[in-house]
Amino acid sequence: MVVIKKLAEAAVQSSDIDKALYDKFNVKRGLRNADFTGVLVGLTNIGNVVGYEKDAEGNTIPVHGRLYYRGYEITDLTRGFQAEGRHGFEEISYLLLAGKLPTKEELAEFDAIIKVEQELPFSLSKNLILSLRGRNIMNMLARTVLGLYTLDKDAEDYSPENLVKQSISLIARFPVIVAYAYFAMRHSFQRRSMVIRHPRPDLSLAANFLYMLKGDKFTALEAEILDLALVLHAEHGGGNNSTFTTRVVSSAQTDTYSSIAAALGSLKGELHGGANMKVIGMMNDIKQNVKDWKDEAEVEAYLQKLLRKEGYDHSGKIYGIGHAIYTLSDPRCVLLKEKAGALAKEAGMEDEFNLYQAVERLAPEAFYKFKGGQRKTIAANVDFYSGFVYKCIGLPEELYTPIFAIARVPGWAAHRIEEVTSSSARIIRPAYKSVTNQRVYVPMQKR
Ligand SMILES: CC(=O)SCCNC(=O)CCNC(=O)[C@H](O)C(C)(C)COP(=O)(O)OP(=O)(O)OC[C@H]1O[C@@H](n2cnc3c(N)ncnc32)[C@H](O)[C@@H]1OP(=O)(O)O
Ligand SMILES: O=C([O-])CC(=O)C(=O)O
């Protein structure tokens, strides 16, 4: 429509701000410093993300990534519960919320609440199954989370006990809501069967999610890998886009459902959690356009095309590559890649896995050549192999970002509690400098 086109052109024109002005007024674009590190905006006891170190002169030195939950290194945590032969997501959720590892008894009590909470109230299941329509599960999930407000008579109670109660309830309910939303979506829009299973209290959260999707047709290894993926995605400090959203919204003293729905909107974004689905689309595009997957020169030439905005979605992005903090590596990507390699072998998908590895290897070099000059050290991030792993364990693409959401609830919840209850809490309200000149009002007949 002509009028819309005209309006859009005017909107874009009046939105544009010269990059040079950011330097002039010393404004940190994207809240990032010139050396690519983040502007310090808060303190937290929850997660710690390490991607670089500073030398004596204050220069940023790239290092292999390390991730800590409540002070514990992620690799120690995962190796710990795996060595003892149990799933870890519930234990890690407890750790993130309580700030300490649970004893056996504490974990059993926590698990018991999850089992109760995962049984959705009838009105909620009925709404999900019969009325909730949508083509995007993240959107369906956010609408459902906002709907939970009406089912919670204590929705506006911000006492620590109630915040914890709401948090555990959301951790327990997310997988069930996502499974029902998936079947509702495919029933409405893919003309496929609606399958409704009750959650099974004898299974871990990860295994139960697989059961709700696939019935008994999943293996112990698949459940173990999904559990690991949930643990690896559970928390990432206060500055990642969705957790920061949770903190910003929570700092205004609003309800849990509003802040978690806002976080979902952020995580859905293609530069954040939504990147895991974009990686699949991008890799499909590479598979179609690169004739010889083993020819590194051909793969790299295609990556250059992506950077020049000539391929895939013309965004100029290589999805699954690069990170705001990590430089040489993302430890979650390293751990997922280990699993991806073993799964690919089992599933006879080694050629595809080798192509992923080639892209992982070649993308940084392609990026450095493309950018030249001063640029950040980049590597594959957690979203690069996660979709491939989910594909190997038979999960449909539409679920990849929702699985990230299921995993991140404990992290968001812990940050919300920290934001709302800390004695140093203050509404988050930074400043924007206006760069528009003042104007004199013009009456309608003179415009
Ligand atoms: C769970 C997660 O959220 S992990 C991240 C998932 N997202 C993706 O995989 C999407 C692809 N990656 C990216 O877009 C970026 O690397 C991000 C969003 C993750 C981090 O972005 P930033 O912190 O702004 O990037 P950073 O400061 O490190 O990079 C500087 C420049 O390199 C560009 N760049 C960084 N990564 C990429 C990439 N993968 N492809 C193309 N360009 C990139 C940035 O756009 C920026 O360009 P500019 O200077 O012209 O503005
Ligand atoms: O830290 C970030 O910017 C993004 C990220 O990896 C996450 O949230 O897991």
From TrEMBL:
Parts of the chain that traverse the membrane: none
Active-site residues, as the UniProt record annotates them: H323, D383
GO CC annotation terms, alphabetical: cytosol
Pfam families associated with the record: Citrate_synt
Pathway: Carbohydrate metabolism; tricarboxylic acid cycle; isocitrate from oxaloacetate: step 1/2
Superkingdom: Bacteria
An MF annotation (GO) of this entry: citrate synthase activity
One of the GO biological process terms: tricarboxylic acid cycle
Swiss-Prot/TrEMBL keywords: Transferase
Catalytic activity: oxaloacetate + acetyl-CoA + H2O = citrate + CoA + H(+)
Family per record: Belongs to the citrate synthase family.
Protein name, UniProt field: Citrate synthase
Originating organism: Xiashengella succiniciproducens
